[in-house]
């Protein structure tokens, strides 16, 4: 609609960058509005959704292109920087102190995603393109930890545009529909816990532990610390990227995958050192800003024209999610786990840090930090679990 005879309306990389930053910034400003109607709207349709969809709509309308050197730069450098800053900010010790039952529930959901993706693909493979497994890989990234991991897998397996567009629809429609169902189930948690003979004392214990361990010494961001954050992020991203080029290359284990896995490991290691103190100056905020920009470029690569194939993908997503749910409730029955851990264990996988705290606060208002920690746990295991799922899906596609 807005395209000229020479192509999209905006084509110069810096102009695209300015457009996407302004678009994402506007969405988040609206999301923080004190207007009651806007707050309610963004509660059910978080800014994260629009970070995907508005750039996708812009590409479909011909405002920006579906391919640009900017997108390649953001994938190669902004993604590893964002992952590094998010992971070094994690309080791994606090996460482990949630107790084995909470972590086992989360891992049950993770296994459900890893197993469910290839099974759902095997069922719907006759109705999908041969390279649909790359979409399964991308969605596995999102459903084990959130959008940052999805971005990592999109880059790792090079998910094509005609696959990525319907996968984003599945991620949004199926993923957030499940979030809505979980919120609705909050009113039945007492009945479920009674039927399941769950021990609710652990929730009180976790509340106390998290309250003691998650006191942050937040300080106003200053120029020296900001430059340290950016220098550490981009410096390590560049070095790891160059090192990854020298490692063995394959369909899945390529330069991008090696970079993501190595940078994730470095981030986790740094979280045990004094480098983690950069979080006091907003390291994770800088990391999230980079990830949101990356998500905007992922949306820009997609085109709504390809969403006509969404029905098959949505059905595949529903089957996949059903397997994840079966694993969760099966584990809850075996472990006598409270409904609260079912909810945060699922959303720590499917929604990550963006929605797990929201769901946690609906079930137990004082325990939103538990949801955040589950989402952070998803960030830790997400890339590695999604790579396993991607390999299994690739094997299914070759059968």
From TrEMBL:
Keywords: Membrane, Transmembrane, Transmembrane helix. The keyword Transmembrane helix applies. InterPro entries: DUF819. It comes from the Bacteria. It holds the Pfam family DUF819. The chain crosses the membrane at residues 14-31, 43-64, 70-90, 102-124, 163-188, 221-240, 252-273, 285-307, 313-332, 366-390. This is DUF819 family protein. It comes from Fictibacillus norfolkensis. The lineage of its organism: Bacteria, Bacillati, Bacillota, Bacilli, Bacillales.
